Amino acid sequence: MKKIIHSKKIETPIGTMIACACETGICMLEFTDRKTLSKELNDISKHFKAEIVQGENSHIKTLEQELTEYFSGKRRDFSVSVTTVGTDFQKKIWKILQKIPYGKTKSYLQQADIFGNPKAVRAVANANGANKISIVIPCHRVIGSNGTLTGYGGGLWRKQKLLELEKEAVSKARR
Predict the structure, then answer these.
(1) pLDDT (tens digit per residue) in 31-66
(2) Which residues have C-beta within 8 Å of that of residue 146, sequence separation ≥ 6?
(3) What does the pLDDT read at residue 80?
(4) Residue 76 lies in a domain
(5) CA-derived radius of gyration, the chain
(6) Range of the domain at 128
(7) How many CA atoms lie within 13 A of 144 on its CB side?
(8) pLDDT beyond 80 at 168
(9) 79 inside domain
């Protein structure tokens, strides 16, 4: 029997996304207008030796609910299971990303410092760019050392919107 990865388009306030999930969790959440989308889908299919079919499973249902809560400012942390596809180095960098608190940012240099190699800034930035699970693994929370928004596969305008959404939710919670 051939393995299946379920995929479903999800509408968000900042554009249509495609979610993919295998048996163990979400393995992709990307904006449908991302230039590398077809390559990412192909990589996932090859990695799991599985066919990607339209549909959903429990992981996608959980993700949809959690994304709705996130975009309404009611969710800060995602509990949906994720299954990352990448090198060991990339996976370590993505774990660091997941520790950046909601509403906060870190620079690529700070992320490299946490990793233990301040000279690995470019490698860290490349690993962030290879993240296939947008928002849930929050690469949008990483900015340039000078505070500028740099490098986001979904587009800098989306990175800005996500950071503003989180900042606003934190601000409301303080009132």
Answers:
(1) 999 888 999 999 999 999 999 999 999 999 999 999
(2) none
(3) 97
(4) no
(5) 16
(6) 88-174
(7) 8
(8) yes
(9) no
Q: Is 94 found in the same domain as 57?
A: no
Geometric angle at alpha carbon 125, from 166 and 114, rounded to 5°: 75
User: How crowded is the C-beta side of 33, counted as CA atoms within 13 Å?
Assistant: 8
Place of tokens 């090859």: 46
Dihedral in degrees, nearest 10, Cα atoms 76, 10, 134, 58 = 70
Residue 77 belongs to some domain of the structure: no
Is the domain of 56 the same as that of 108?
no
Residue 139 pLDDT > 70, yes or no?
yes
139 labelled catalytic: yes
The DSSP bridge pattern shows strands 50-54 and 3-12 to be parallel
User: Residues 70-102: pLDDT tens digits?
Assistant: 999 999 999 999 999 999 999 999 999 999 999
- Residue 121, both tokens: 């800034």
Does any domain span residue 43? yes
Query: Looking at the 3D structure of the chain, how many domains does it have?
Result: 2
